[in-house]
TrEMBL record, chain A:
Gene3D superfamilies: 2.40.40.20, 3.10.20.740, 3.30.70.20, 3.40.50.740, ADC-like domains, Dimethylsulfoxide Reductase, domain 2. The keyword Transmembrane helix does not apply. The keyword Amino-acid biosynthesis does not apply. InterPro entries: 2Fe-2S_ferredoxin-like_sf, 2Fe-2S_ferredoxin-type, 4Fe4S_Fe-S-bd, 4Fe4S_Fe_S_CS, Asp_de-COase-like_dom_sf, Formate_Dh-H_N, Formate_DH_asu, MoPterin_dinucl-bd_dom. Residues 238-294 form the 4Fe-4S Mo/W bis-MGD-type domain. This is Formate dehydrogenase subunit alpha. GO terms for cellular component: membrane; oxidoreductase complex.
Length: 949, 93
């Protein structure tokens, strides 16, 4: 198959409903009003030469290559900046135009190295292509004059080079960085001939600049000036396969561009509905972990965790594991067995893991990492709206007038969505940020939050209730909406509660540390500023009152009528690529796929018939309770697919004790992760590039994942689960994930309309997708709430039991950073470490001074649970009394200090609030040293087997 | 006493505390409902067997209610689950 770039229509699509008919080169064409002449020509089969225009940014009109003639108009206007008009008659090819274009091209080429044959962009270069299109054969100016050919290449970015000698100063890169990414890292310095693209000021180097390595400029560059290093190393791609990013919940789709079995680059897919052709550094560049030397591709077993690993055949590994499972089941019963599904694996893979646990192990002890992130979203939104589904699609943000961001840091954790949000903010939408830290969004180029509420960690419910207090007492609520959509009496009870003096911003200021006036102004803005949209993240959920905060958010949206249309809504920003899907697939211990409770005999019988088994009728254990039960001896074996609970879950020592107490820990992963230090069986996993299936992103969009290379370990992950199930006694015989999708659709009404074929046809779909919503559901609750009326819930502020005091006077809160992902197992094994090679502790200058710290000093971070050491970064991003760190590196293990406290309804851990003390230190803590020792011992491998051929 | 029992006491107490705004009677039912729908049998058994004087009044009454073998109908929408053929809602995390 030949390789083609995705078609570039030159200017963005017009959203207008009005149609305009005109004539181009004798063809009558009809396009939406507002379309450029260039795009109208391109859409109807006649491309006009161009250089400075590209279809994901506004036309600029600088290169003058796209000139056309228009009957009745003077001169030769640029087609990229000229909108279509009814009855217009356009000519795109005339001798006059050809001559003009050749002249323009000649000027460009005279200052461009003529090394096309050896250039890495050869045959994939727009300049070369356009020179051929305009028929340039000869350059009259000679190449001897002043030129830029000797300029040195900037290699500083680990993923792409900048070779200014090839630059034609079209400024597509600058505009991509401004308009698409919103970082404003690039400028054109100088004027006329001296003009040059530059990143930053003095350093003039990409790595040292503000650049976040999103790749938008590289994609926009029509020449080899900005180009992926991998293209130089591997060569030009030969084919492209569309697939979905396996990092965050935005769910960007990419063209995986291949040369043979080698991945040359990942290029964001312009037709991707979640990303619309944009990407971030993780999805775009950080896929190198797939071939990292740490990747394990052979099964391994050992009898106890102090032994080295022994590489064995698949047969031996599965036989050994099945023997142990059957033995434990015989001695302790099915409820001693369990599993954890992965939000990084496909829907089909998670579905099979829960099926394995329920139907083959015979218990309902299955849980997933949503437990530690968005389970409170599930509880809170379901209680209020009747369904936990986030209410909008990502496109909706472009209709928002007021955007409230609570406990989320989208520019780092959901970067591609953040770029769209920033675009909307630059268009004039207002921003309210509720976060203990001054996240980047609060002030970034051309964006300034109208209000930042820097609350004390742990006081979300108090702040949200005080916002409601203002909206109710100042009568800013939407009575019509409430009367139509909600129960008025319930609203009345709630309104009375929030109106109490003890819920006023003035009264609560002492607890929240947010000035009452700021709260009042923010409440007024949200209630009266037009379409109000709330976006929130783990800063809301990971608290002892996570579920309550979610309900306060829902209350606020209902009270102001901000539900049920584009531009509004309640939007949980989910962390991992498939956390929505993992939940949909029945990963919780109390329910079967499609959110049906295990107590329900009728639902059970549907599955029992299909699976040919009898199911346990009682809910199983959640992850933290599995660990408790392990210590108590009633839970003995666990199968963990693609999760690293030792690093990701709170109170590391407790997790370690639980795992250590088990007889059989099976880790199914790419690497010997931290959890594997306590494992007896290691089953090698496959990457998202090596498997077929689907992921469901944060907007409920189901998107295909496509295999572009053979699994290095020999099997896709669903195959490994199937082999394990069969070894234990099942008789599964899926040969392709499409059959698993069929089973899911057959057994789960919300997915009834789903199939692999249909997905391949339409690209993606947002569930529910069934008879009622055959095209899927971008915005929820349009006609009314999913199940009846919206419910207002009274949410009393209950302070956490984790309190500061003389011994632990500071509050620690945690988060993540753009270049790293979750526990970092993948991103730490890529060049992304140039941006973040260790976790640091952010501390306010006052606290630092009181303790005698300066940036770079080692500090001991101690809580009631444990202690660790890391370096300090002094910054006023955090408020006095608050410290902050990330959890990407196992050597730091921030979770050694986090506590066992958790959300009251879902047991989602309270990561965001830990009382700590910070004191000078000169090295790693005892736990860190012991752990480093254990980790090293535990990763020994006896490679007794013959090497693979 | 094992630390598991301590965890269970804390969990029951947290649930009860957050339903307290409903008033005692309703909060007892909501707490009982929550535990019935979300707890594994061994967790229920352990808290039944525990000394209930460590529990708050709401939590204690809820546990004792469940201990009689009955359980309430769902008290909040969080414990209304899809029925067999229902498309309905999710409680995704
Ligand atoms: S990689 Fe992204 S952030 Fe960096 S300069 Fe290019 S567009 Fe801007
Ligand atoms: S680097 Fe590329 S995109 Fe930027 S001005 Fe030069 S040629 Fe144009
Ligand atoms: S924003 Fe998320 S989904 Fe998109 S490329 Fe980055 S990590 Fe992948
Ligand atoms: S493409 Fe129209 S002026 Fe450059």
């Amino acid at each position: 198959m030949g390789f083609e770039r995705q078609k570039d229509f030159g200017t963005p699509e017009s959203q207008s409903a009005e149609q305009v008919t005109l004539t181009i080169d004798g063809r009558e064409v009809t396009v939406p009003a507002g379309t450029s002449v260039m795009r109208a020509a391109a859409e109807t089969g006649g491309d006009i030469p161009k250089l400075c225009a590209t279809d994901n940014m506004k036309a600029f009109g600088s290169c003058r290559l796209c000139l056309v003639e228009i009957e009745g108009a003077r001169g030769t206007p640029a087609s990229c900046t000229t909108p279509v008009m009814p009855g217009m008659v356009v000519k795109t090819q005339t001798p006059r135009l050809e001559k003009l274009r050749r002249g323009v091209m000649e000027l460009y080429i005279s200052d461009h190295p003529l090394d096309c044959l050896t250039c890495s962009a050869n045959n994939d270069c727009e300049l070369q292509e356009q020179a051929a299109n305009v028929g340039l054969r000869d350059v009259r100016y000679g190449y001897e004059g002043d030129n830029h050919l000797a300029l040195p290449t900037d290699h500083s970015n680990p993923y792409f080079d900048f070779d200014p000698s090839k630059c034609i100063v079209c400024s597509r890169c600058v505009r991509a960085c401004d308009e698409v990414q919103g970082t404003f890292a690039l400028t054109i310095d100088g004027r006329g001939f001296a003009s040059m693209v530059s990143a930053g000021q003095d350093e003039d180097n990409f790595l040292a600049s503000e650049c976040v390595s999103c790749g938008a400029c590289v994609q926009a560059c029509p020449t080899a000036t900005l180009q992926e290093k991998s293209v130089k190393a591997i060569g030009r791609p030969e084919k492209a396969v569309v697939t979905t990013c396996a990092y965050c919940g935005v769910g960007c789709t990419f063209r995986a561009e291949m040369r043979g079995e080698q991945l040359v680059r990942m290029v964001p897919w312009k037709d991707g509905k979640a990303n619309r052709g944009h990407s971030c550094v993780k999805g775009r560049f950080a896929y190198g972990y797939a071939n990292h030397k740490d990747r394990i591709t052979r099964p391994m077993i050992r009898d106890s965790i102090d032994q080295p690993w022994r590489e064995v055949s698949w047969e031996e590994a599965l036989g050994y594991t099945a023997g142990k499972i059957n033995d434990i089941k015989a001695r302790h019963g099915a409820r001693a067995l369990g599993g954890i599904t992965s939000s990084r694996c496909t829907n089909e893979e998670t579905y099979l893991v829960q099926k394995l646990v329920r139907s083959v192990f015979g218990a309902n002890n299955v849980d997933t990492c949503a437990r530690v992130c968005h389970s409170p979203t599930g509880y809170g939104l379901k209680t209020t709206f009747g369904t936990s589904a986030g209410t909008q699609d990502f496109d909706s943000v472009m209709d928002a007038d007021v955007i409230m961001v609570i406990g989320a840091n989208p520019t780092d954790a959901h970067p591609v969505f953040a770029s769209r949000m920033k675009r909307r903010l630059r268009q004039g939408a207002k921003l309210i940020v509720i976060d203990p830290r001054r996240i980047d969004l609060v002030r970034s180029p051309h964006i300034e939050a109208a209000h930042h509420l820097p609350l004390q960690p742990g006081t979300n419910v108090a702040v949200m209730t005080s916002l409601a207090h203002v909206i109710v007492t100042e009568k800013l609520y939407d009575e019509k909406f409430i009367r139509e959509r909600c129960d008025w009496d319930e609203f009345d009870d709630w309104a009375r509660f929030v109106s109490l003096e003890r819920n006023s911003p003035e009264f609560l200021e002492a607890v929240t540390c947010v000035p009452a006036q700021t709260v009042r102004e923010a409440a007024r803005l949200y209630a009266t500023g037009g379409n109000g949209a709330i976006y929130y993240g783990l800063g809301v959920t990971e608290h002892s009152q996570g579920s309550s905060t979610v309900m306060t958010i829902a209350n606020l949206a209902m009270a102001t009528g901000n539900i049920g249309r584009p531009g509004v809504g309640v939007n949980p920003l989910r962390g991992q690529n498939n956390v929505q899907g993992a939940c949909d697939m029945g990963s919780f211990p109390h329910e079967l796929p499609g959110y049906r409770h295990i107590h329900d005999a009728e639902t059970r019988s549907v599955f029992e018939k299909d699976w040919g088994v009898t199911l346990d009728t009682e809910p199983g254990l959640r992850i933290p309770n599995m660990l408790d039960a392990a210590v108590d001896g009633s839970f003995r074996a666990i199968y963990i697919q693609g999760e690293d609970i030792l690093q990701s879950d709170p109170n590391t020592r407790h997790v370690a004790a639980g795992l250590e107490a088990m007889e059989l820990v099976i880790v199914h992963d790419l690497f010997l992760n931290e959890t594997a230090n306590y494992a007896h069986v290691f089953l090698p996993g496959s990457t998202f590039l090596e498997k077929n299936g689907t992921f469901t992103n944060a907007e409920r969009r189901i998107q295909p994942v496509r295999k572009v290379m053979e699994p290095a370990n020999g099997y896709e992950d669903w195959q490994v689960t199937q082999m394990l199930a069969n070894a234990v006694g099942a008789n599964w015989n899926y040969t392709h994930p499409s059959q698993i999708i069929e089973e899911i659709a057959r057994l789960t009404p919300s997915f009834a309309g789903l199939s692999w074929e249909r997905l391949n046809e339409i690209g993606s779909v947002q569930w529910p997708v069934n008879e009622k919503f055959p095209q899927g559901s971008p915005v929820m609750h349009v006609e009314g709430f999913a199940s009846g009326k919206g419910k207002f819930v009274v949410t009393e502020y209950v302070p956490t039991d984790e309190k500061t005091g003389p011994r632990y006077p500071l509050l620690l809160t945690t988060g993540r950073i753009l270049s790293q992902y979750n526990v970092g197992a993948q991103t730490r094994r890529t060049d992304n470490v140039v941006w973040h090679d260790e976790d640091v502790l952010e501390m306010h200058p006052t606290d630092a001074e009181n303790r005698g710290f300066k940036t770079g000093d080692w500090a001991k971070l101690a809580s009631r649970t444990g202690e660790t050491t890391l370096r300090v970064l002094v910054t006023d991003r955090v408020a006095p009394g608050v410290v902050y760190t990330t959890f990407h590196h196992p050597s730091t293990q921030a979770n050694v200090v986090t506590t066992d406290f958790s959300d009251w309804a879902t047991n989602c851990p309270e990561y965001k609030v830990t009382a700590v003390q910070v004191m000078p230190s000169n090295g790693p803590s005892e736990w860190q040293e012991d752990y480093a020792d254990l980790a090293e011992r535990s990763r020994r491998i006896d490679t007794a087997m013959e090497p693979a051929e | 006493m094992s630390s598991t029992v301590e965890t269970l006491r804390r969990m029951a107490g947290d649930i009860a505390r957050n339903f307290a705004a409903m008033g005692h009677e309703k909060a007892v039912l909501a707490t009982a409902d929550h535990i019935y729908q979300f707890w594994d049998p061994r967790m229920k058994a352990a808290i039944f067997a525990d000394d209930h004087s460590h529990l708050s009044p709401i939590a204690r009454d809820a546990i004792e209610y469940l201990q009689t073998g009955s359980h309430p109908a769902s008290q909040t929408r969080a414990t209304e689950f899809n029925s067999v053929d229902e498309v309905g809602h999710s409680d995704a995390g």
